[in-house]
Amino acid sequence: MKNKKIRLALLIGRGGRLAAVYERAKNNPLVDLVLVVSHKKESPGIDWAKERGLEAIYFRLNDWQAAGQDRKSYNLELAKILKQRKINLVVMAGWDLIMSNEFLKEFPGAVMNIHPSLCPAFPGLDSEKQALDYGVKYTGATLHFVPDDGVDTGPIILQRVVPIEPNETVETLQEKIHQEENEILCQGIKLFAEGKLKIEGRKVIIKNGFLFF
Questions:
Q1: Which of 33, 121, 123, 195 is the most core-located residue (most Cβ within 10 A)?
Q2: What's a single GO MF annotation on this record (predicted)?
Q3: Catalytic site residue from 39, 115, 144, 178
Q4: Does residue 178 have an active-site annotation?
Q5: What is the pTM of this model?
């Protein structure tokens, strides 16, 4: 049976992964990048997306709370915005906010997050600095599903290893990890669109057992 095109929303910070996703989606008949959302005060990615004709909006938690609204209603309103656009895959790339279970239950099995470490190591913010401070020889990038409000704890879809050199800095390590994030993020979106991902408990099974990209 022919796969139906997925409608993708990309939740970003500054938009570092946006260009890679946009280029791959543009050339994939199964992926339609519908909406870009940033929670940051400023985001180059929003302007970049608008210049290419994409719908791109700010949805800031600080603004929401300043208007007297709470965190739960923020999550529910974001879910409403995505539902109105018939989004069926939500990808968080640089999105630093933990989404509530109320939000996640609206998109079961269809929320992904890209994280700059080899999960379960170094969850949360400043993962590259965490890795350098700990003295590990390798770190990397992880794409995982987000089934609940745990921090970088969801079933792992894809990972890439990045070696840490003796004189590595946070900046040089970030650059290497970002390259790998771009690749596995785009691979994961493609596999989802092709119906090749299945969650079984803690594991993500990739249909056919190997990647086509």
A1: 33
A2: phosphoribosylglycinamide formyltransferase activity
A3: 115
A4: no
A5: 0.92
